[in-house]
């Protein structure tokens, strides 16, 4: 690990100012991706700004038809929340399947979506539910947040403070995991609200995306039969030692059917 200056600000404004005044600073949430990268010297930062001491950035609340989750809320807190389970049980399923117990007790929702790993689970929930990302400056629609491989719409002086998930009529999350890492080889987050279906896919491409063929078919008839015959093109999908692009393309409608069944 290279040398850096460590900061633990007590407010979002202080954290932003510290990052702006650093040569190459990085915000630290749970550190489940950043810390191993630094330890292996795959990245070098001038300043590390720990967000863990900022009050009000963690916590869960259900207000009307929305589930609000603070940026530094740990995966385990989401996985074990009765409020989340009663409102959007698919979110507790998703959070409970992330990594191992150590990762779930340290990793945060804000860190996950800001890192935007192509195989991460939470980005699919953002797109699959049409969530809104809240920052210190604005609100960003989930469909506009993820812009590419490990890239988001965040500006340099912008920090995520929370996520607001609208409560759907039905939802489910199904993933085909890498058994070693628990990351998604392919994951599907499916929801329907008032006949509007959203189907988000993670793990298959360089960035989470929605699958319009499946959405259109399920909007007409929310059943596994409506997905029969749908073929997803492998063009542009990931291909690696864990699965070829063709295999991932095959998994998308297969897992979508399972998600329909799970959603009931």
Describe the structure.
With 264 residues, this protein is an alpha+beta fold. 33% of the residues lie in helices and 25% in strands. It folds into two domains: 5-53, Uridine Diphospho-n-acetylenolpyruvylglucosamine Reductase, domain 2 (2-Layer Sandwich); 60-263, Uridine Diphospho-n-acetylenolpyruvylglucosamine Reductase, domain 3 (2-Layer Sandwich). The strands form four sheets. Strands 4-5-10-6-7 form a five-stranded antiparallel beta sheet.
Helix percentage: 25-40%
Arithmetic mean pLDDT: 96
Outline type: globular
Radius of gyration: 18 Å
What count of helical segments does DSSP give?
A: 11
What structural category arises from helix and sheet content? Answer: alpha+beta
What's the count of strands? 14
Largest sheet: 5 strands, antiparallel
User: What is the straight-line distance between the termini?
Assistant: 48 Å
Identify the CATH architecture of the largest domain: 2-Layer Sandwich
What CATH calls the topology of the largest domain is Uridine Diphospho-n-acetylenolpyruvylglucosamine Reductase, domain 3
CATH class of the largest domain: Alpha Beta
Low-pLDDT segments, ≥5 res:
none
Strand content: 25-35%
Main sheet strand line-up: 4-5-10-6-7
Domains (count): 2
Q: What sequence of helices (H) and strands (E) makes up the elements?
A: EHEHEEEHHHHHHEEHEEEEEEEHH
